[in-house]
Amino acid sequence: MRVFITGASGWIGSAVTDELLATGHEVVGLARSDESAAALTAKGAAVHRGSLDDPDSLASAAKAADAVIHLAFKHDFTDYAGAGRTEHTAVQRMLDTLEGSGRPLLLASGLVSGAVGKLLTEEDASPFHGVDSMRGGSENLALSYAERGVRPVALRFSPTVHGMGDHGFTAQLTRIAREHGAAAYIGEGTTRWAAVHRTDAARLVRLALEQAPAGSRVHAAAESGIPSRDIAGAIGAQLGVPTVSVAPEDAEAHFGWIGHFFGMDAIASSTRTRELLGWTPTGPTLLEDIAAGAYTLPQ
Predict the structure, then answer these.
(1) Which ranges form a coiled coil (predicted)?
(2) Residue 19: what are its φ and ψ, rounded to 5°?
(3) Is the pTM of this model over 0.85?
């Protein structure tokens, strides 16, 4: 297939690009900068210059492709509502372009149920609807097009998609631990994060592209839930600093913006995904990656 990927040069997207190229697909990657364009060209992918702020450009690229994988998102935590509105508009425009074609649109979503302590399964619908909800309600928007001649698939990624070179949530927690001289968790440290290695996530995306039926939700979760106390302990051991508890009321002052996410109980099953796609994660666990220096060795 000729696949248009937004976020093709990003952390997950670059691994997905590698996976698709290695298995015989063509990739057209969205590139906002010269640097991103050069990185895609070096991999052997074609380049479509543009950004999420130009939905007409996204629509033209989607129209010329056999499939769309939408992984880009404006991670602007100073205007998260605005980022959600941009997401909604971009997804809507691409869906309208694909309507009636039978072509797939896979889009990145998250493993957030809205219920503390609930193990999220693929059968659980997202609670977020509408342009002003989290990520612009794009998952429910996309899945609604299953009845309009599109093959939408929700790619629900774990809070941490880890590996050497990761600059995401776990990297931020490591930076904060280094700055404070202690690796912290919130309260009793019983909240949990699902996790998946980057290469396993990329393989799941490729399998979903090739096999997942319209309206599917697939879970990129190799580990269903790692206690935040264990994550902090692994970071502390790697840095050689103590592991401490931070009171919930002090979490924002200690962690900044990431405190809200670290305090979430984001646990998920991937049993149905594994059965549906024949997906078996083989990469290192999150704690193994931390111990191997993924967040402390020079990258």
Answers:
(1) none
(2) -60, -45
(3) yes
Cα separations (Å) of 111 from 151, 236, 274? 21, 26, 16
Please tell me what DSSP assigns to residue 230. Answer: H
CA 57 to CA 48: how far, in whole Å? 9
In sequence order, what are the residues at sequence separation of 6 or more whose Cβ sits closer than 8 angstroms to the Cβ of residue 232? 173, 177, 183, 184, 185, 189, 243
Residue ranges of domains in the chain: 2-158+196-222, 160-195+224-268+283-291
Residue 27 backbone zone (phi > 0: left; psi -120 to 50: alpha; other: beta): beta
Contact 280, 207 (CB under 8 A): no
Say if domain 2-158+196-222 classifies as CATH 3.40.50.720. yes
The string of pLDDT tens digits covering residues 23-67 is 999 999 999 999 999 999 999 999 999 999 999 999 999 999 999
3-state secondary structure of 91: helix
